[in-house]
Design brief:
This is EAL domain-containing protein. By secondary structure, the protein is of the alpha/beta class. The protein has 11 helices and 9 strands. It binds ligand C2E and magnesium ion (3 copies).
Length: 284
């Protein structure tokens, strides 16, 4: 019986592996057409001033509506696009689309609205990255000061080139943020040496903020950021208590389901016009 069971387990394991492999291959192939077939879209999550509850900008988050699998998470397909190289074309599209959209909102009466765009390491390390962004922004008359690029600590693998790129971006006025801050191994060094503007504290640290919980780490990160004159943004705020603790500790900006999930452009426009549907905010 045990033997029969073992065999079944093996077969199950085997077919599960096969299924995953087939899915990966399908994604690899599908990526090539996703752009032409209009299967990609951007969602926007408000970035909020924690004290006033006002929307000061948004983060563009990529979605892929796959013809066979439905909505696929960027966590699944971005790493594959990095492997295949499709990230270059996709990344260009994301930047152009996000800036064009935000330019529309700026013209609608929100002139200081910022937009944050995620940039993968491979994209960031392209030779012509800076030039492409620069001409892209000029084409649509977009102020570089109102664009923020979010990169992760993985760019540290090429510390020298990355520092040069960050310097050049700074010179053009474009802002840069370290995303998922605190999850990499070289956080302190990054914070001190890299010419960045913002740190986004990873959701894992925000999750620690609960009544009777120990959230000394998050306070330490906020203080380090502020001492180095960086803007500090909290990711993944889900409840009032977290928002209150963050605001009290001078973390001034945040994003999370408490305020809004990432939404489509027309829904974000509603949020801009009507304000977030929440009646109380924390004034400290
Ligand atoms: P990220 O940049 O750290 O984005 C934050 C993720 O947390 C998003 O997941 C967002 O939907 C989710 N999130 C926001 N607030 C909350 C909350 O309160 N609770 C919970 N549970 N989740 C929250 P998403 O949209 O699935 O994106 C996952 C990751 O994929 C992003 O992490 C980013 O690293 C990457 N990504 C997304 N769009 C792009 C893109 O255009 N280019 C590149 N290179 N990467 C992208
Ligand atoms: Mg991000
Ligand atoms: Mg993040
Ligand atoms: Mg992330």
């Amino acid at each position: 019986l045990a033997k029969a069971n073992g065999k079944n387990n093996f077969q199950f394991f085997n077919s599960e592996l096969n299924r995953q492999l087939e899915r990966k291959v399908a994604i690899e192939h599908g990526l090539r057409k996703a752009l032409e077939e209009n299967e990609l879209s951007l969602y926007y999550q408000p970035k909020v001033d924690l004290h006033s509850g006002r929307i000061i900008g948004s983060e563009a988050l990529l979605r892929w509506n796959h013809p066979e699998f439905g909505l696929i998470s960027p966590n699944e397909f971005i790493p594959i696009a990095e492997e295949t190289g499709d990230i270059a074309a996709i990344g260009d599209w994301v930047l152009q689309t996000a800036c064009k959209q935000n330019r529309k909102w700026q013209k609608m009466g929100f002139p200081f609205l910022t937009i944050a765009v995620n940039v993968s390491a491979r994209q960031f390390q392209q030779q012509d990255f800076l030039k492409k962004i620069h001409t892209g922004l000029q084409e649509i008359g977009y102020s570089p000061k109102l664009l923020e690029l979010e990169i992760t600590e993985s760019i540290m693998q090429n510390i020298k080139e990355s520092t040069e790129m960050l310097k050049s971006l700074k010179a053009t006025g474009i802002k840069t943020a370290i995303d998922d801050f605190g999850t990499g191994y070289s956080s302190l060094f990054i914070l001190k040496e890299l010419p960045i503007d913002t740190i986004k504290i990873d959701k894992a640290f925000i999750d620690d903020i609960k009544e009777a919980g120990d959230y000394s780490m998050v306070r330490t990160i906020i203080n380090m950021g502020l001492n180095l004159n960086l803007e500090v943004v909290a990711e993944g705020i889900e409840d009032e208590f977290q928002a209150e603790v963050l605001a009290k500790n001078q973390c001034n900006y945040g994003q999370g389901y408490l305020y809004s999930k990432p939404v489509q452009a027309h829904e974000f426009e509603q949020l801009l016009i009507e304000g977030l549907k929440k009646d109380s905010y924390h004034t400290v």
